[in-house]
Design brief:
223 residues, alpha/beta, Rossmann fold, eight-stranded mixed sheet, 6 helices, 8 strands, globular
């Protein structure tokens, strides 16, 4: 397995951001992976997702949004964030032109990836992997954030915890069902938005991130 750190231009206005490519020797796909609003590409969750994907022979290219690269609080505008997603996809394809591309991310990063895809398909991306998609803010249940998903034509897999405070299952499950065959909802038993689980009541003994990577690989194999 090879790990490479690099930089690429997010947008002409915001300049360069950092990225990490992890490529297993037998990689079959490359997942372009965006971080959540309060994290960055080096967070423990992002690292755990990338390492678990590598064990399933899925390479990852994870990167910072400009606001995190600059050490700022808050998030980038949707225009900047979606442009950064597109730049990351292009850079990943340049670095690994022989691997088929997936794109996605955790929470905010996944939402910005789906937003970009809904506006104009991401070049050569064959599927989206969304971890803890933020359907609504905690305590403010609604489905408005999912409206743009209807415009997406490529397959999507959503990894959502059954205790995710950003995705009320009574709302989320019908939304995904209406998306039809192109959407798959994989529920993480007792997981919250950060994938912390209740060990005493969780029925599975499998590591959460291994479960996410395994089900992603199984889903990818059927694309």
């Amino acid at each position: 397995m090879k790990t490479t750190e690099c930089r690429f231009t997010a947008t002409p206005e915001k300049g360069e951001v950092s990225a990490i490519l992890i490529r297993p020797e037998k990689a079959t796909r490359l997942l372009v992976l965006a971080h959540g609003a309060g994290a960055d590409m080096r967070s423990s969750a992002m690292q755990s997702i990338a390492e678990a994907m590598a064990r399933e022979n899925i390479a990852t290219f994870r990167y910072n949004f400009p606001y995190k690269e600059a050490g700022k609080s808050g998030v980038d505008s949707p225009k900047t964030a979606t442009a950064t997603v597109r730049s990351a996809v292009r850079e990943a394809a340049r670095l690994e032109p022989k691997l088929k591309l997936l794109a996605g991310g955790h929470s905010f990063g996944g939402r910005m990836t789906t937003t970009a895809q809904s506006q104009e398909p991401l070049e050569n991306v064959v599927g989206l992997v969304l971890c803890s998609f933020p359907l609504h803010a905690p305590g403010r249940a609604g489905i408005e954030r999912a409206e743009h998903l209807k415009a997406i034509k490529v397959p999507m897999i959503f990894h959502s915890g059954t205790r995710d405070e950003f995705a009320d299952l009574d709302l989320w499950q019908p939304v995904v069902k209406k998306l039809g065959k192109r959407a798959t909802l994989h529920l993480i038993d007792t997981g919250n938005h950060s994938y912390k689980v209740l060990k005493k009541t969780r029925t599975s003994t499998e590591d959460v991130f291994d479960e996410i990577a395994r089900t992603t690989r199984e889903w990818v194999d059927n694309l």
